[in-house]
Structure formats: C-alpha cells, structure tokens
Amino acid sequence: MLQPKLKSKVRCTDRDIGEVTKVVLDPLSHEISHIVVSMNGSGERQVGMGHVQAVMEDLVELRAPSSDIAALPPFKRDDYVTTHEVEISHLEDNLHVMPGEVLVPFPALEKDVKRRTFFMNFTHVIGFLIGLPMAYPILRFLMKPMYMPFDNEWLQVGNVSKIKQADLGVQFQYKKKVKEAYMPESEVEKSVWVLKASSEVLDKVYQGKDQEFRDASGKLIWTNKKDFSYIAFSGKCPHLGCAFKWRQHKTLGQVFLCPCHLSIYDASGKVLDGPAPRALDALPIRVSASGEVEVVDMEFKAGVKSQIRIV
Amino acid sequence: MEQPSIPSAQPTTVEKLISFLDARVGLKEMQAKMLNEPIPGGSRWAYVFGSILLFIFAMQALTGILLMFYYVPTADHAYASTQYIIHDVDYGWFLLGYHFWGSSAMVVCVIAHMSQVFLWGAYKPPRELLWLVGLALFGIVIGFGFTGYLLPWDQRAYWATTVGVEMVDKVPVLGDFLARFLKGGPTPGQMTLSRFFVIHVMILPAGLMALAGLHLFLFRVAAPAGPFSGTPEEIKAKTDYFFPRQIWKDMVGMAVVFATICGLAFWEPVVLLDEATPDPGEYHPEPEWYFLFYFQLLRLKVFAGEFGQLMGAVVVPVAFMLLLVTLPFFDKDPERNIFKRPIALISWIFIMAMIAIFTVSSVINREFLD
Question: Where does the pLDDT of residue A99 fall: very low under 50, low under 70, confident under 90, or very high at 90 and above?
Fold first, then answer.
C-alpha cells in the first residue's frame, strides 16, 4: 500500500471529510501508525491506519462512515513531538510523506565539469605526494636514539672482602655514570651479584669451558677462565627484567629468587623453578690484587633462551 | 516547529541572547535532539556507565592539565617535581591523588560498561561497529594507565615499565623493534619518559576524544538496544527519554564516583617510593592493582620458558582481544537475554572469577616474598 501523503483528500464510505494534515510515526517500527485529518474546519481527528481502506496518489479512503470519524476524540497536539525535536535514527529513511520532491538548482559552473573522477583521484595523488616524503623522515626521527653502541668499560663495584662464605650470593651495589643524549651526566644505581664459587658451582657455570665475551663486531673483549673462583651475575632477571634477590627458600635452601614472577635459580644461576627461560647471565669479571672487583656492565635480552646482548 | 507564543512582557537580555544564538546555531533543536532520545524499555541504573566514563575522562583531563603546570618530564626532575606537587603545591596532593584514583575508577567503569553491554547482548548486529570502537577505547584506557604509571619516575614506575616493555619485546619478529621504539633505546631512560609523556598527554587524549565522539555518534545512529526481554508493547509502554530520568541516574552515578575518588585521594594519598633507578633495593616490583591478575598469571608454570612467555605475554592477550573483536561477527543469534545464552553467561562468570582469584592470589603471594 502507498503511504498517505500530506494534503491528500480523505474520503469516508459516505463522503469526503477533509485532508491529511499530519502523520504519526511509530518510533519502533518506523511505520506510519496514524494520520491526522482536518475535519473541514471542525477540528482535527487522529485516525489509525486500521481505518484506512486504500491509499491512492492524492486520496485516502477510509472504511468507516464520516459519523464514526467525527465521533473520535479531537487530536491532541501536545501528546507529540516533531521529528526535529527527537533523536530517532533512520526515522525518515522509509517515509515518503512529502507532497513532492524538494529541489535546489545545480550551479551553472558545475554543469560543464566533465572529469570529476579525474579531479577526485588528483586530490588523492596530491595527498599521497605530501604524505610520502613525510613518512620516512618521521620514522627516522622517532628511531634516532633506539640503537646505541655497546659500552665495554670495566666498572669497580666493590671489594671481595665483603664475601664471607663460598657459594653465597652477595649483592654489590655500584653507581654507573650515564650520559643520555642532551641530558647532563648523571649516576644511576645498579647492582650485580658476586659469588665466591666452589669448584662444583664453577663446573656448573662453565661446564669445563672458558667463557668468551665479544663485542658487536665479534672482537674478543674478555675471557672468564673456567677455574677463576669469582662469578658475577647481571642483576637483571632473564625472565622479564626484574631484579632478583638471594633468599632462603623452604625446600630449595638458599637460592636466587625473583620477586616478580617467582623464578628461582641456584647459586650457579641454573633455573630451579618458575618461568625463566635461561640461567642467570654471568658477566666479565676480574679481581685486582687488592681484592677490588671489576665487571663489564652488560645487559641481555630477557625472555629468550639464548643470550642476546642489548647494552 | 511551533511558533513561540508572543510574550506579554519584553524579553529579558538573557532571552534575547539565547534567541540570537538559537537563530544562528539552532541551539534549541540541538538540545532537543540531545535530550529527547527514546530509551526503549525506560531508563535503568545499568546504563549509567557510559556517561560516568565520559565524566571521569573530563575530570582526568582537568586534573591532568593542572598537574602539567608543575610536572617536568625529565629523568632528573620528574621525581622531584612530582614530590613538589605532593608536598609543596597547595592541594597538589589532592589533584594528584584524584588523577591517580581516577585512573582506577576509569578501569573499573570500563569493565562494568563492557560487562553490561556483553550481558545485555548489546554488541550484536546492528551494533558491531559500536562494540569495535568501544574495544579500541578500552585499549586506549589501558594505554593511559600504562604510560601514566611511569611519569612520577619512582621505583614503582620504573619497574612496571621495565616489565611491561619486556612483554612487548616478546612479539614475534617486530618485538625487539617495538620495545626499543617504546623505550627510545635499549633500556628505560629519558627517552622513555619523553615518549610516554607525549603518548599520555597528547596522542592518547586525542585518540580518546576522536573515538569517544565516534562511539557516541554510532550509538545515536544505532539507537539504544534496550532491555533483553519483554514484548514490543511492554517495551514501548515503558519507554522514556534520555532526559530527565536517565540523566538523573547518570548524575547520581557521577556523584558517587566523584565522592569515591575524592575519598580515596584523601584517605589513600599517593606516596612515592624512592626515585627510579635500575637497582630496586628492597622493593618488590608490582604493577597497578588492575594488572595484578595478569602479573600473577605470568607466574604460572604453563607460561615458563621462551615458548611459554610468547604464549603468556603475546598469544593469550592477543587471542582474547581477537575473540572480543570477532564476537559480534560469529555470535549472530538475535537472542539477547543473558539467561538464554548459557555460554556467554558462563564465560563472563569464568573470566571475572579468574580475575578475582588471580588478583587475590597475587596479594597473598606478597607475604611469602618478605
């Protein structure tokens, strides 16, 4: 059935009674639920679509006599809001209640423009040409400080006289000078764990082989001799980079324990329990005649089986 | 539109100003459109969380801007300037405390909002895009929490960032690049602080405002989903407009949230730990409480080793987010009643129970570390 149009004549079974002045929409179904009929000057009536027999181009036929319609209560405008005053999306989408199309003239200058697609693509090309030379500089701009050469300097971290007992983790805290980009030089606190290792622990760490440390170009920096009895472990947990401690464990005895995700390592750095993927990282270590411990402060990527140096 | 009846007295200056603006901007129609939105089935307390989130964001923006008057995002001054805000600036402790607890409130209300939408089946067609934009907003909220946490530059900040970025490092192929990109170098330092600061105060707020606008727009286009049960006649009979009943409920919700955040800022003020440094001393690193369950999850044996870590740090969270993203596209059953969607109900209860259990167990675990 067509939708009733505004200004259509309304005809009852016996005679014409007026015209459609408003339509009422159901907000859920978005269908016209009522028409409002002007009763030829004697007020307005709200007529449900159930009364409508047929809708023609400019005529609505009702299936009731005019006396029935006139007996309906007068239309109460205050019970309604206009579609401009309420937010119901898509309300107008399937309605065609306008008495005809509403048109505005097409500007004369626009009539002769043939290459609309060309101009549309042209704007895209210009945009691309502006964006392209920006993309790489922006990426490089943001990448500037990401990669740095390794620092292989020896740092003094303390004296072996601090170590009273073999195979016991002792934390050596030290200050490291850092100079980052434009920042003034400053000191950060770091720590390594130093062990005076028994021969069993040394065997477990080195497995009978000297440990070699190389820089990025593959040049040998230092070799930890397999029978040298001091071992330094980087303070960074190989799981996710927290800092571990030396703790008494209920069943495992004295162990290295990381408080973050509870990785547990024995004195040789081997993983006893928890999520860590590899053993603790031994660092290049040397001890002077007076017992001063020196290490090369290296950091390795956490969370991977193999040792990958990042600092 | 109805012509206003001619007033007997002369219009006041305010009325003149309003009609001047209305004629040029269409204020009255705009206001009518904003307030007169039918809510199928009527207003409910369950619908308050979206408005509350907008309110929390506005307050975070306000307090955040105020904090920037004193905060300096450099490794040598971030800590001192934050301490200055807490101890020396009048009401600095309050505004910082509000911003700090406001972020927790944001996470709690986001979870509540997402749960409501999930339980009501409101993510189903035709509201898929609304749900997707909501998920992106969820990601932004998490990003706010993560980047904001570093800014005070104390030990808590430093270690949460260290561990968080190490998890990004576990992404296959791109992980190392992404982690370095976030840190601006191999280890956390000034570049990390600068980057997190810019992300926190520029990029995420812009993203959130754009996406929240889109979220609201899509919400208005799709219209509210309404209750998950009841016949169309019942729903129609109970329908009311956004104003006044829903707005009243939203306002009460906002007031409760505001009072709660103020109370927390007052009774649980922010206390910084020592200044950030790569040696944590006696501090046991821990993330913010709403990440504790995940922190505890990563302690599980299943997430041990290189493969386990890939699972825990990347695969599980990505798979979970992908599940949420694809949810409206495979769950097309128009049934929205949560009591007739047993899998959805059980999944929701299971996830909430897991979060609760793992959070509690990480708190219990604290005792065994000292």
Answer: low
Q: What is the dihedral sign for C-alpha A269, A271, A275, A277?
A: positive
CB A293 within 8 A of CB A162: no
In chain B, the domains with their CATH numbers are 41-280 (1.20.810.10)
Q: In A, which residues are within 8 Å of B159 by CB distance?
A: 242-243, 260
Minimum-distance CB partner of A183 among B76, B223, B239: B76
Q: Which amino acid is at B211?
A: L
pTM of the model: 0.89
Q: Are B317 and B291 in contact (CB under 8 A)?
A: no
Cross-chain Cβ contact A299/B306 below 8 Å: no
Sign of the CA dihedral B84, B85, B87, B89? positive
CATH fold for domain A154-296: Rieske Iron-sulfur Protein (2.102.10)
Tokens 């005529």 -> residue: A59
Whole-angstrom distance, CA of residue A163 vs CA of residue A161 = 5
Contact B309 A277 (CB under 8 A): yes
pLDDT > 70: percent of chain A: 97
How far apart, in Å, are the Cα atoms of A101 and each of B206, B213, B315, B319? Answer: 42, 33, 57, 52
Q: What is the mean pLDDT of residues B111-133?
A: 96
Chain B interface disruption, residue of A89, A144, A146, A190, most B CBs within 10 A: A146
* Tokens matching residue B296: 């505890």
CATH 3.40.190.10: does it fit domain A1-102?
no
pLDDT at B370: 65
Burial class (CB in 10 A: 0-12, 13-18, 19+), B182: buried
Residue pair A303/B166 in contact (Cβ under 8 Å)? The answer is yes
Q: Quick one: tokens of A74?
A: 């007068």
Q: Rounded distance, CA A270 to CA A277, Å?
A: 10
Q: How confident is the model over A206-226, as pLDDT tens digits? A: 988 999 998 888 889 999 999
3-state class (DSSP) for residue B173: coil
Q: What is the distance, to the nearest Å, from the Cα of residue B84 to the centroid of all Cα atoms in its chain?
A: 28
Separation between Cα atoms, residue B201 and residue B208, nearest integer Å:
11
The owner of tokens 């609309």 is A116
Interface membership of A139 toward B (CB under 8 Å): no
Minimal-distance CA residue of chain A relative to B276: A188
ipTM of model = 0.83
Does A254 contact B at CB distance below 8 Å? no
What would the two tokens of residue B263 be? 């109370």
Cα–Cα distance, B177 to A143 (Å, whole number): 9
Beta bridge partners of A294: A156, A286
**Contact, A229 vs A196, CB < 8 A?**
yes
A233 forms beta bridges with A193, A282
- Range list for CATH 2.30.30.240 in chain A: 1-102
The verdict on a CB contact (< 8 Å) between B37 and A86 is: yes
Task: Select from A81, A241, A299 the Cβ nearest to the Cβ of B163.
Answer: A241
Q: Of A25, A23, A32, nearest to A75 (Cα)? A: A23
Chain A residues with beta carbon closer than 8 angstroms to that of B298 = 240, 261, 275
